[in-house]
Amino acid sequence: MAIFFQVVLPVVLIFCTGFVLQKVLRLEIKSISTVALYIMLPCLVFKTFYEATFDRDYFLMVLFSVFLLIAILAVNKIGAKVLRYDTPTESGLILSTAFMNAGNYGAPIVLFAFGEQGFVYSISFMVLQQIVMNFFGVYYAAKGTAGITMALKQVAKMPPTHAIWLALVFKYTPLSISDNIMSSIELVGNAQIPTVMILLGMQLANITVKNLAWDKVSYAVSVRLLVSPLIAWALTVILPMGDLMANVLIVSAAMPSAATTTMYAVQFDSKPELVSSITLMTTLLSVVTIPIVLNILT
Known about the structure:
The chain has a single domain, classed as Na+/H+ antiporter like fold. By secondary structure, it is an all-alpha fold. The longest helix has about 40 residues.
């Protein structure tokens, strides 16, 4: 119970402020989201990669991300075949279960639970997840060669992608950044996490669920909140990584469905109502499951 009050409750309260704000004022979310995506997030990513020490841990994190995605895809392929779900339903379930909210939910939870060092791992994992999600979401929806082209363009347009290579250029070349410029970048980057936490609450306030398909929602909730962290735990046992990074990755894998998946579901008509329902239910139920995961790990 102490973990809930010390780690989860502060995060949930920030979500609630965004939720109430949106219900009362009905603000335009896209403008705030654009500022967070195109200004705040690149600054945070730049700072993280510029100051990071790249070692075996980052290579293991990439392997972890790839294996976790493959495993969850396999679970969904088998589940769709056994339960006889059609292709749009399968696509919607994959979008809802393969990608977790590692950024505006996972990162603050990790910060409260594991401190600054864990937070650095969390931001790096978040960037990896965004790259994979942008590529895979577009590719899977478009299907085939055209999908690959669209997916590559999508990843290339991502602001964090440019922040990464710029950070590496300044890190590994004689080019330098003045302390004042770095302080400005850090100041803007630090605003990213609280902003997107409020945004998540606002996004949840906009989700409307008319008819819940309880069988499909229950399946997706089980995969996202139970199966995913179990797979993550198995991968951290197999891959030779440190305890802190292992704990951060397990907690990140236990996060609810990424809010971005709802956008993909609408764009590519992959059961948007179902995906919205799953996003809402996994977020609500994660208030119970995340403290359990943290208790087990600590």
